[in-house]
Amino acid sequence: MSRVYLYHQQCTQIWSSLRASSSPLSLSTSSLSSPSLPLYFSPPWLSLSLNHCAKRSRGGVDMGTTELGPSDLRHVESMSHTPSGAGKINKLNAVILGESLASEENDLVMPSPGFSQSALISSQEQYEKMYKKSVEDPAGFWSEIASEFYWEEKWNPNEVCKENIDVTNGRVNIEWFKGAKTNICYNAVDRNISAGNGDKVAIYWEGNEPGQDGQLTFAQLLDRVCQLANYLKQVGVKKGDAVIIYLPMLMELPIAMLACARIGAVHSVVFAGFSAESLAQRIIDCKPKIVITCNAVRRGPKVIFLKDIVDSALTESAKNNVSVDICLTYENPSAMKREETKWQDGRDVWWQDVVPNFPTKCDIEWVDAEDPLFLLYTSGSTGKPKGVLHTTGGYMIYTATTFKYAFDYKPSDIYWCTADCGWITGHSYVTYGPLVNGASVLVFEGAPNYPDAGRCWDIVDKYKVTIFYTAPTLVRSLMREGDEFVKRYSRKSLRVLGSVGEPINPSAWRWFFNVVGDSRCPISDTWWQTETGGFMILPIPGAWPQKPGSATFPFFGVQPAIVDEKGKEIEGECSGYLCIKKSWPGAFRTLYGDHERYETTYFKPFAGYYFTGDGCSRDKDGYYWLTGRVDDVINVSGHRIGTAEVESALVSHPQCAEAAVVGVEHEVKGQGIYAFVTLVEGVPYSEELRKSLTLTVRNQIGAFAAPDKIHWAPGLPKTRSGKIMRRILRKIASRQLNELGDTSTLADPGVVDQLIALADC
């Protein structure tokens, strides 16, 4: 574990002294260091070096000592230790929540005392105490948390966790709470009703068009879940059977997930944007008893004919000897009329014709903690999707606990995650994690920029959203549209922001913090994966200062390690491959039908560790910085350069709205850096701007990281969830235009032709 000790009590005393003073003052460094601990145990954010501060400043600004008066007391200053142990306060780039973070000169964003006082984890000291227990006594730590949930049968306290993640010791195996019986649907719905929250809104739904909305209380949600569960049972779906769900973000999507979980069926949600070929691959692999879909959906002004895609996928799967007898289809009249929907009698069934006729009571299927809950397919380097398998008990505990602390959840919160349930974020942090906590969740069917770029903030004001969790891609996209769309709305209800999906570059972080959050909302910048099930490294709001762009510190029970190419763990300030030393309850258990691939991909690269596939840096203060996928690292003349690092430098340019970087073959350097750049609205392309962008990278990273080619991009090829399809960018950069592959999942397939047309500009 890194030396990260932020002593909240000491800080509070210092803070009180500062506020009590009415005259300029200076502090001795000895007052910031515990007399009973070595000097290096001083809070690292209070001892950032002068060299670090000077490096982060601009224009050679003097970072020396300063006198503080009453007007300065709302800013935090850092002590730099001197050999004598005494000195004056050194200017530190830091602000308190509530102050504007207008400049990249600010290194730290401090939690406001008011936020920390009411936070679930109010200090670094409290975090350290809990973290220490979680790694020294994981069985005791997680058993105590698990006891807060409902279990039909309890676990053996002597067998809470069994694991082997070292391939040299035999088969990789992870088990948590095996033998205990529970049901995640019961914990997410019934348990909340039993607690007296039946009339609390469980799901708010906002449709594609403004004014389309709906809601379900927990009691109403239970009725709807039971009706679908009873239908599934009648058509022969039983415990362990697979169910494919290919739905847009209607309320019926989480209803379908919960209905499967209630009867012990294994759901596999497929993002309703994948092509027929991709859907067919998943059907062939998991052989579902039923496919659940809807006839069509509107996303922005565009209609997507989902039923047609399913029809094609079922035809393709039948050619591979996998037939599905039932296609349950929800009629979505706002997108397509029933009579216009293509239909196959004997297979296709309208949801509205059958499901509402079933009883609103359905018995629970109690399942073992290690019984499968869901399959979620993720991209693989071989082209064949990987069926990530998550089980029930550990996943339930982990997602609920990470949600609770990552967002400082309070029962009065209105929570909105913009992710689709077709991705892991929608499983863990739209459906299961929030509902198990009894949260009111917002489900949004539409596009975040439709009918204009203010839609998100209109929704925030409409529902009084308090927690807003989204992707850096969306942040940068809305940032490109300008502040006006944000500032026309109040957003006063917001108290916590969140980021997910990829490293967020500091300039986007600052805009998110300054403009969207009015410089008062902490940002929970989460790092995790489909495979991890829940958050792994993240800032816990109120507990410690944030550095824009850093995921900060590990969650409870997570033991990160940074290793070199030989698998040797590196201590202190370093860069390398991010691994995890021990299992955690939310970890995936295997790849469906391919345990060998599971071991080869995740556990063989560095024996004794789970290999995340991500690069990572840890700074001298112990903060973790994700640098992107290792396969997104470009080797230029022996220099390993993370694509995220170059992208962050480009986006820091005031005229760059978004950037995506890929590697291409280079005759001399081995690999070259190829950058696709989207400019701020209204900025024209020019060679001068190209040179300016290149110079920005040279100045921030070094000449070795300067792009070899800057390719103007009116837009980037993204899925409807906002993920940039780098595979397509690599093919365009390499001029392998006949190998672009399937582009049907893109939000705007036309952007590919635009990029090709601009290739030589």
TrEMBL record:
CDD domains: ACS. InterPro entries: Ac_CoA_lig, ACAS_N, AMP-bd_C, AMP-bd_C_sf, AMP-binding_CS, AMP-dep_synth/lig_dom, ANL_N_sf. Residues 645-723 form the AMP-binding enzyme C-terminal domain. GO terms for molecular function: 4-coumarate-CoA ligase activity; acetate-CoA ligase activity; AMP binding; ATP binding; trans-cinnamate-CoA ligase activity. Residues 195-583 form the AMP-dependent synthetase/ligase domain. It catalyses: (E)-4-coumarate + ATP + H(+) = (E)-4-coumaroyl-AMP + diphosphate; (E)-4-coumarate + ATP + CoA = (E)-4-coumaroyl-CoA + AMP + diphosphate; (E)-4-coumaroyl-AMP + CoA = (E)-4-coumaroyl-CoA + AMP + H(+). Keywords: ATP-binding, Ligase, Nucleotide-binding. SUPFAM superfamilies: Acetyl-CoA synthetase-like. One of its GO terms (biological process) is phenylpropanoid metabolic process. Residues 127-188 form the Acetyl-coenzyme A synthetase N-terminal domain. Belongs to the ATP-dependent AMP-binding enzyme family. NCBIfam families: Ac_CoA_lig_AcsA (TIGR02188), PRK00174.1 (NF001208). This is Acetyl-coenzyme A synthetase. It comes from Rhynchospora pubera.
